[in-house]
Design goal:
Layout lengths: L4 E3 L1 H30 L8 H25 L1 E3 L15 E6 L5 E7 L10 E3 L3 H6 L7 E6 L2 E10 L1
Parallel strand pairs: 1-2, 4-5
Antiparallel strand pairs: 3-4, 3-7, 6-7
Amino acid sequence: MSNFVYLSKERLKELEDEIRELKSNGRKKMAERIAEARSHGDLSENAEYDAAKEEQGLLELKISKLEDLLSRARIIDTSSLPQDQVHILSKVKVKNLKNGKTFEYILVSEEEANIEQSKISITSPVGQAFMGHKAGEIVTANVPAGLIKFEIISID
């Protein structure tokens, strides 16, 4: 499996903006907190200083992880993918055949998945079940609660 992370253009921009914000304002605020804590005297017994230094380490770790993610990012060009089949970045309307409820999902990379925004990962059991299928087909997802059958109603 490749080490690439496939992202939409929008998500790539969000990540770039987040890194820029963390590097500029995040680091500046952290330096101010450390300076403030340092001004309280003896550093060997200064819990506020220790906490600020630990928080600084976490900030740098987050920046490092985001930079690593960006270095492996590849933009998805959906224009070359078949429009009649479910693929990454497809918007899929499906019907759960067990309870009759209809859902709309956007299939995304694992990094972009967010169920509150109806974005499910192509590596999730449900996402995997949809991949490569066409409207009108019935697919079965093997989820922890058991098997769920979906009818693919439409693909955008």
